[in-house]
Amino acid sequence: MELKSRHLLGLKGMSKEEIELILETAVSFKEVLNRPVKKVPTLQGFTIVNLFFEPSTRTRISFELAQKRLSADTINFASSGSSTSKGETLKDTAQNIESMKIDMVVIRHASAGAPAFLSERLKSNIINAGDGQHEHPTQGLLDIFTLTEKFGDIKGLHVVILGDITHSRVARSNIYGLKALGADVAVCGPPTLIPRHLEELDIKVYHHLDEAIQNADALNVLRIQLERQTSGLFPSVREYHRTFGVTREKLAKSKKAITIMHPGPINRGVELDSDVADSEHSVILDQVLNGVAIRMAVLYLLSSKK
Predict the structure, then answer these.
(1) Per-chain mean pLDDT for the chain
(2) Cα separation of 82 and 205, whole Å?
(3) pTM
(4) Which residue in 126, 179, 202, 273 is a FRET match for 173, CA 20 to 30 A apart?
(5) Percent helix, strand and coil across the chain, each to the nearest 5
């Protein structure tokens, strides 16, 4: 079994078997991360460019660490101060970098479709590290990997994604990946933050948190993008927390203990209270470590598709 594509552009349309292959490979690489010497020569001789046109801390560091753990040569590119700030196009930037004989490009871009655009023009493997409001496939995979560690089988698992679904690439990748594995997926949030077409994907939509968590096994809490608050999508941050903020009091109304997830960074006291984020039911730090293992797995599996 191998991945069908030589790129990872998104989880939409990816088969159950391909997702399970990535998860199984990540198990092996997580074992490497727990060794005294956390490095293997798997990608020695490979050169990978991290092409980040948007600010990022967790994703960029996670990819860079995954590359170094696999012994690849890593080049970090930031758009600020680069030729793109002087008017150079994405295509010219990428082709100039590829002419230096690189093997893979990890790209994060504000425009949906930027990774697909590069995949049609470059010989390198392209990995989407988040594009606009489209997808963030490795985040979706690491969230699913964390759930498999916690629950074993994803099939039939009740997962609720809470928050700004409309603007979230994380939500989309989670929905596609979880559905492919047979999970029961629901979303919850204000009507202004949930796209109308989701029910067509056999996804339950809730507008009340108390109702959403009644049968939930896991709650994936998305960051409220405070920069969007100026557009009036909800009355105020205080009002959002009162209605949709996850607190111990609200969780106590559930029928069972709910596993708490968050892709980060957390706005504490907005979407999630600190005592919930740091509780025994939180797997947020597990998600961070699992992100390195998943990205090692993706890099390894795509390296054979050169």
Answers:
(1) 92
(2) 43
(3) 0.94
(4) 273
(5) 45, 15, 40
